[in-house]
Model the fold of this input.
Amino acid sequence: MLTTVLTLALTLASTTAPEAGTAQLTFGGETTVHPIADCAMTPTDGVPARLLIEEVGLTLVLARADHVQTISVIRDNTNWSATRMNIGGQWTDRGRPAGPIVQEWGPLIRAEAVLAGSGEGAERQVSLVARC
Done:
């Protein structure tokens, strides 16, 4: 686990900011760049602030609200996801203390998490750097 965290920290530190309207996704060790289909920096009409990538073979949804953050990646017919809830000022993952998914939300968006897949014990590391 510590090795994964250190690898992710080095990946994020060395990542260059993508062009406006694109996102750099590192998923399971593979880094790719994708156009952003939708991005809202603030909630609108009851829908949380969000970022959407929608392509053939890949859908990513990152949503951010004051009390909850979620990221979902659908790839290779598998849904990988993580959710964090802020309870009493502390971020939790399935009731356990955890850091937030969203590290930065502004002109540059940075997010990272370990996603649980639909398979038994399946997990994937994800990091996202995007510029709406």
